[in-house]
From TrEMBL:
One of its GO terms (molecular function) is rhamnulokinase activity. It comes from Singulisphaera acidiphila (strain ATCC BAA-1392 / DSM 18658 / VKM B-2454 / MOB10). Belongs to the FGGY kinase family. This is Pentulose/hexulose kinase. Residues 269-458 form the Carbohydrate kinase FGGY C-terminal domain.
Amino acid sequence: MAKTSDYLALDLGAESGRGLLGKFDGERIVLEEVHRFPNGPVRVFDTLHWDLPRLFEEIKVALRKAATANPGLDGVGVDTWGVDFGLVGRGDTLLSNPVHYRDARTDGMFEAAFRRVPRERIYEITGLQFLPFNTLYQLLAMRLSDSPILEMAETLLMMPDLFAWLLTGRRTGERTDASTTQLLDPRSGTWSDELCRDLNLPRQILPELIDPGTVIGPIRRPLAEELGIPQGLSVLAPATHDTASAVAAVPVVRPRGVVDVVGPPDWCYLSSGTWSLLGVEVHQPVITADTLKYNFTNEGGVVGTTRLLKNIMGLWLVQECRRAWARTGREVSYEELATLAEAARPFAALVDPDDESFLSPGDMPARLAAYCTRTGQTPPQDEGAFARCALESLALKYRWTIERLERILGTTIRTIHVVGGGTRNALLCQFTADACGRPVHAGPVEATAVGNVLLQAMGRGRIGSLAEAREIVARSFPVIVYEPRNTAVWDEAAARFASLVPA
């Protein structure tokens, strides 16, 4: 029997962080939850920050629990979302608490950047979707406000790299997360000297780049002693951008003897959670007039792949509605909301989930209602109607995105693989199948943690290829299939929805 390897995946999502132990016996992976904790931003004066000190304490709790129960732990890997970063100065000094991407400091930064470098040139260099919170605009905001800590910084570390530095003392930049900055050239795989020069951003602080699966180094000796864990426990870089890890765990299995060709894919992934990341896996960046027109992004994947995708606002709309109702004393569970949404009138109101008014935290029901009024629709009147509006609109945005991916690549998408926490929302999965007219294969739920474990195992030489990794996922976790039904009514709604999306 093959030796079992144990890997700790530290996955920091938008609502919660978790330490999940992945046990791999050579055939299957079993996940065990070690520690779960809330993860949300904190406001200090007028700035929204990461709650970094508390999160690091939670990570230490997860490490202690995992290493105590599994003294032969083979690795630890950290992943979280992209774009956010911390700055490290002389003497390994963290210069400030990192700012959260939903902070308002990047307001107006598109215009400021495009005055210096044309929008088309930024896209030609980076192939990255224009999102107001990309690292480029966060740094530009700091530069234009004469930030003193930017002047003092020696190294910029993206958030998963920052946690790895806190654990090991080594400063590195893992490629998949670096690819979310809009400062990386995806063709060459190097930082863009041109953008740094023309935007007056400090090129010298951008870190050395490493690939997923790289051993970063052992846990710092004082930290290991503090936690009472074995000396020499290594931190590895998974695909530290959570979507890249989730996509690595998509359980696509080809028939025996059939290999993926270098050509247009016939399946897409949908990493569903606070954000929805919908796209395809390609073998090189796709940077064209159409990808610019439709604002698609080229982000780094594993083993040299590129993730051509679109960021869609996702279940944030529902999450913020729940928080708004909770502030008024009305606690509504996700299960109750799903029941209410299913009973609500279909297609009563639709929104473009990516309207900029929905981005920042606040009174989401009021914002959804205002959008409906602005677009000549009757606003939802109760919780079920708001939830149904959000879920139907998401499903229709997925259809809109898939249709444009097919046009860009000249392919037909036959299957949608949904992974992540959104797979628990059966109503959204069925809406997605119905709206898109394609079967939805939903699972695994903890795809990001699974991908994190897979990349650690690949780095240790236990798994030889991405295809082998995906076969392991397919053997290890259940997948629920949702077949499309009653698609004609969705075709009518899609025509209505298209008028809401900017051309």
